[in-house]
Amino acid sequence: WARRLPDGATLMAQVWNAVGLVRWRQGKWRRAVHCFRQALRLCPDTPDYSRSRGRFFSHLALPLTDLGSWDEAERCYREALRLSRAAGDITGLAYTWGDLSDLYRRQCRWEEAWQCLERAAALWEQAEDTAGRADYAEHRGRLYADQGEIAQARDWLGQALDLWEGLGNPHKVLDILLTLAELEARQGMGEAASQRIAWAHPLARRLRRCDALVRLYRLRMAMARAAGHPLRTAWYGLRAVGCALLAIGNDRTRAVLRAEGWGMEHRLRAG
Questions:
Q1: Which of 49, 57, 59, 104 could make an S-S bridge to 80, C-beta 3.0–4.6 Å?
Q2: Structural domain boundaries enclosing 191
Q3: Total domains present in the chain
Q4: pTM, to two decimals
């Protein structure tokens, strides 16, 4: 029936794109890649559709980045930038520059990451978009965190947390709480980390985020070990294993297990 509509192909492409975003947020990254490829296949490759194709390429790069397909993700971001420029899509350009910065951050390409982020900042000055401001603050905070600028990281991630909470995005709130808790625990800020964990844990359960629960239990295990509590250490370790087994087929959960390496406690400071 969609083919009888004036923009039937575009309509179906938008449906695939929407499903892809849901799959990506669920941590089903490979399925998300399939959905975004379908969206691009259906969306006409003509100047009239540059804006849509730019968004689709940018979205496709998100799960590719998470899956470690960094070269392909970068090509998608570059194509998204080209199409968004052609369409005059300021918001699309800003999001894409920010997400490209995140790709470079994961590769420790610091100078390029900061350059992309500054381009995003300049574009966000032209667009009134609270989600965009939250996205920018989050990228900036994560970049500071990876470079060891703890005070700056906490400040920017705190700003992002407030903005995402105001926008009612619980998944983003949870992700930032996890990052802050891990960051603070590694710095020996046990009380601050515990407060983040107390907020994040019921949220992770409500959202059924097994990947987040694994991270939380692993963090609690590491903190208990650093504090000299062997029974708590063992208990939290078992809970982490249980949560991991419940969602072992989820791409995001598997990525957490690889990243955790089941041994982050050595990175914590005792006391």
A1: 57
A2: 169-271
A3: 1
A4: 0.89
